[in-house]
Structure formats: C-alpha cells, structure tokens
Amino acid sequence: MTDLSNTILEANRAETDTAPPVELSVVVPIYNEEESVGPLVTRIREAMADFDKPWELILVNDGSTDGTLVSARKELGSGLRLKIVELQRNFGQTAAMQAGIDLASGRLIATLDGDLQNDPRDIPAMVKAIEERELDLLVGWRKNRQDGLLLRKIPSWCANALIGKITGVKLHDYGCSLKIYQASIIKQVKLMGEMHRFIPAWVAGVVPSSRIGEMPVTHHARQHGTSKYGISRTFRVILDLLSVLFFMRYKARPGHFFGSIGLAAGGLSAIILFYLFIDKFVFGNDIGTRPMLIVGVMLFLSSVQLITTGILAEMMARLYSGENDTPPYIVRKVFELDRIDA
C-alpha cells in the first residue's frame, strides 16, 4: 500500500472519528422517478432545515431504466450528507428499502416514497412524536389520501381492516411508506418479497404492539410519472397476508400448522371409516361402491401426508433456525461525495 493510500485511509478514519453520530437516516427507494428526484431532495432539505441534529439522506436506485440515477447523482454536491445506492437490477420496493436500512447509520430511520406523495415536512414532527411517546415504530396515516376512490382507497380500507384483524396490530393505514423506526428494532426484521406493507406486523413479532403507533400525515397527489401499482396488488396483498399470518404464528413451530390440519382430516376419516365398519359388519350392507369409503380413505391418506409434512417442516425449521444472512438485493455501487464504493 502506498503512502498516499495510507494518508487517505487515515484521513477517512479521522473524519469518521470526529464526525458526530448520525441521529436520523432518511431512506428513499426510487424507481423510474427521474423528474421527481430533484424536487424530492429539495423538499427534504427544506423540511430538515431546522433539524438541529446530524442526519443523512440515502437514495436507493432500484434498477431504474430512465435517468433517475443521473438526476440523483447531480445532488451529490448540494451540501447534504447524501448517499446514493445503486442496485444491480430492479429487486422491488421491499428489497430497496432493506438495502437502505442496512446502510443507514442513524439511531432513527425514516422511510418515504420517492414519488413526492409523502410530505417530508412531517418527518421532524414524527421524530419528536416517536421520542415523546416512547415508541419503536411510528406509522404515517394518510388521513386525507389523494388517490382514486375505487382502485386505491376502497381496496386499501378493506386491506387495512383485514390486516389489523388478523395480525392484531390495529392501524388505519398499513400502506403508508412514511414511517419512523428505532434503528435497533427495524434492523432485527428482515424484509423480503413484497412485505414492506406488513412492516408493523413484522415489528410486532419483535416488540409489543403497544410500542407501535400512528400519526396523521400529509398526502399529495402524484405529480410526475405513473403509479407502480394497480388493482392486481389487491390479490398479492391477500397472498402476502396469508404468508405473514403463517410466519407470525407458526414460524418456529410449522408442525403445529400442518399437524392440526392433518389431525382434523384424520379425525374425520376415523369417524367415516368407523361408521362404514359398523354398517358393513353389523348391518351387513355392501360398502365397496359407496363414495363415502373413497372420501374416508382419501382423508386418511391426506392426514398421514400432512402430519409427515409437519414433521419434516419442524426438522427444517430447527436445521435452519439461524436465518440465512444473504440479503434480498445486490448493490452495484454506492455513491457519496468525492467517493464511489463498489
């Protein structure tokens, strides 16, 4: 290693040692938001102008196919503590959010969308609220939501009610991306798939639901680009909700899930076969061509299969009790002022 390299490394270490710790990290996943990036950074800067503690902004470019990355890199010299994360391809909003959370160094982490619909001016008030209310997660509530009634609001209302009933975490707006987390808590949660809308449910698996709150926030109509979601999202939410329910209740004991269904099928099979046994050997009736016999045998076989599946699931859960640490994303580069990390 050359003397120049040693000097640079020592300077970086000295800067890291002397820099005050970051209080808040603002994480924004962006995908094909070329026209929104500049105004977004400006709004965040203006909103945080009176924030008297160190904070950083992390933009995660989720494999955009337009000029989003170029527009974002233009903001590197704007005087902000800015970090731009370029993912290798489009991994989805959840993976992009996870990448930003993993790279965040703040004690608190704020997340919001990059389409200018969330208002960054709500962030300081939410930071104050999460501290005063001693919460681990504060969720934004788009009380006056600026979206279409039929395709966005009504499905959202139904989904929020269903999610709250199933998970036990009662919130008005699960889908709002504007949230404030205690970093030590959210970094214990691994986000995968499209599970970002169920973050409060995942956090409830780490802390009591009493430490999760909500707060009304401002919501704006989309100004640039097009929405990345359609009515098909409703069906994906239902499937994701079933997955959340399974993992919340049976992640550590999957044998109970499959075994319960297997025992129920086995019990019903036993009743049917016992009835047919009595009908055959006591009353002398022919049961060979009766559909009930086929149903009873199929239920018995299903019971054996489900119970066996439960046992195998238990073995796998114990074998892989330490979760796979492989992240659900691949970072190509990280851009910072006067520095690029591969």
Protein architecture, described:
This protein is an alpha/beta fold. The protein contains eleven helices and nine strands. It has helices spanning 3-18, 34-47, 68-73, 93-103, 123-132, 149-167, 183-186, 199-203, 233-250, 254-281, 291-319; strands at residues 24-30, 55-61, 82-87, 108-111, 137-142, 179-182, 212-217, 331-336, 339-341. It has a nine-stranded mixed β-sheet, with helices on both faces. α6 (149-167) packs parallel to α9 (233-250) and α10 runs antiparallel to α11 (291-319). The radius of gyration is 26 Å and the shape is elongated.
Please give a handful of descriptors for the protein shown.
342 residues; alpha/beta; 9-stranded mixed β-sheet; 11 helices; 9 strands
| Oligomeric description of these chains | single chain
Number of DSSP E strands: 9
Low-confidence stretches: none
Shape: elongated
Topology (SSEs and partners):
Elements lengths: L2 H16 L5 E7 L3 H14 L7 E7 L6 H6 L8 E6 L5 H11 L4 E4 L11 H10 L4 E6 L6 H19 L11 E4 H4 L12 H5 L8 E6 L15 H18 L3 H28 L9 H29 L11 E6 L2 E3 L1
Parallel strand pairs: 1-2, 1-4, 2-3, 5-7
Antiparallel strand pairs: 3-8, 4-6, 5-6, 8-9
